[in-house]
Amino acid sequence: MKKTIIIIENDRAVAEIMDYVLTEAGYTVQHVNPRDHVQAVFKLKPGLILLDCFLSGELSGHDICLSLKNNIVTRHIPVVLVSAATGLDKIAIDCCADDVLRKPFDITDLEHIAYKWLDTGRAALSVS
Q1: What predicted TM-score, i.e. pTM, was given to this entire model?
Q2: What CATH number should be reported for the domain holding residue 65?
Q3: Among 14, 22, 21, 11, CA closest to 54
Q4: pLDDT digit string (tens) for 40-89?
Q5: Which of 34, 86, 94, 99 yields a CA-CA distance of 20 to 30 A from 127?
């Protein structure tokens, strides 16, 4: 099973914390610009995508998630929406995300998400 995690995150500090924690946990982490997500996913073939719900620019996390889940080649890749937004569960359901990680998150929450999706096999949809 792949241990590569793609992070698409607006906040550089949050992305760096995620990178550090996940790298220390033994995963390969790649930061990806939202505009380059399609090429990166095809090139890196990640086992998990951590996706900020609210990105600056023309693409939102919702749009990116929908495009990945509507593509037969990428729909199997777990996508976790990361946000402090109220209504995150509904947003995740609307764009077919596999899970959510609420900001601010504990390091153990981040580690649990990675372990859940990469080390224990395909988890059932956990968004309620």
Answers
A1: 0.91
A2: 3.40.50.2300
A3: 11
A4: 999 999 999 999 998 887 789 999 999 999 999 999 999 999 999 999 99
A5: 34
